């Protein structure tokens, strides 16, 4: 959505897409980093995406391999497919994308939506996307493409924050961590769900608890974060 170019960050994905037997292609999909159980891990993806040095990125392609799950096909060999039905687009996509490797076809479950959603809940995943099989491609949210979250949440410890870009006394996001055994491990930055009053209140509370170093034992490269004492707990 922000139109950032991620080519340099994911050379393994680039190589896989380049190897597809086509002259040109436009895919829609989601880049993930899978954990040891095969589940997408936002924390691992953040570690991977935060790297900037070429040497570190190359090493991470082995240590934290990325996977692009392709779920839609907008164009193929200069042919615009957005007017075709989702069923037709995915039928072509299934023939194009391999079953394994850095780029994979994102499978679907037809009709059994309630049972599928309950299984996603049981696995502790974020949610599902429900799509009208006969819909054309739209580059925006619509009634034909719904994101349904499971409501899965956990308590996290606030370890820092980023301030508003306009210089006002408000937070833009909070940095949160979780206990991993005896270690406090950095988890992510959270930037939604605050009203104006809470933004200002949290800013002054966290500013009062400022520290010079990250209180976590494990942390990603977060240069914009102002660290604080791990006192506050939030449900994310």
Task: Describe, in short, the structure shown.
The chain has six helices and eleven strands.
Describe this structure in words.
With 236 residues, the chain is α+β, with helices and mostly antiparallel strands. It is 25% helix and 28% strand. The chain has six helices and eleven strands. It has helices spanning 11-18, 42-49, 54-63, 86-96, 113-122, 196-208, and strands spanning 25-33, 66-76, 79-80, 103-105, 127-131, 145-149, 155-163, 171-180, 183-190, 226-227, 233-235. The strands form three sheets. Strands 7, 8, 9, 10 and 11 form a five-stranded antiparallel β-sheet that branches. Strands 1, 2, 3 and 4 form a four-stranded mixed β-sheet that branches. The protein has a two-stranded antiparallel ribbon with strand order 5-6. The radius of gyration is 20 Å and the shape is globular. 17% of the residues are buried. The mean pLDDT is 88.
């Amino acid at each position: 959505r922000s139109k950032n170019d991620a080519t340099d960050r994911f050379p393994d994905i680039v190589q896989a897409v380049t190897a597809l037997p086509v002259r040109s292609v436009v895919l829609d999909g989601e880049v993930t980093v899978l954990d040891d159980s095969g589940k997408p891990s936002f924390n691992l993806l953040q570690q991977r995406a935060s790297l900037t040095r070429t040497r570190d990125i190359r090493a991470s392609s082995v240590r934290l391999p990325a996977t692009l799950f392709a779920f839609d096909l907008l164009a193929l060999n200069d042919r615009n497919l957005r007017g075709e039905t989702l069923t037709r687009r995915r039928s072509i996509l299934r023939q194009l994308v391999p079953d394994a490797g850095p780029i994979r076809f994102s499978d679907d479950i037809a009709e059994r939506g309630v049972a599928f959603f309950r299984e996603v809940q049981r696995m502790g995943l974020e949610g599902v996307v429900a799509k009208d099989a006969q819909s054309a491609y739209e580059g925006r949210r619509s009634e034909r493409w719904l994101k349904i979250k499971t409501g899965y949440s956990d308590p996290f410890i606030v370890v820092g924050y980023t301030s508003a870009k306009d210089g006002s006394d408000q937070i833009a996001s909070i940095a949160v961590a979780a206990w991993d055994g005896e270690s406090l491990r950095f988890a992510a930055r959270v930037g939604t769900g605050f009203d104006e009053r809470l933004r200002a209140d949290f800013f002054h509370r966290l500013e009062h608890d400022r520290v010079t170093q990250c209180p976590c034992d494990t942390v990603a490269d977060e240069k914009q974060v102002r660290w604080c004492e791990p006192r506050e707990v939030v449900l994310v």
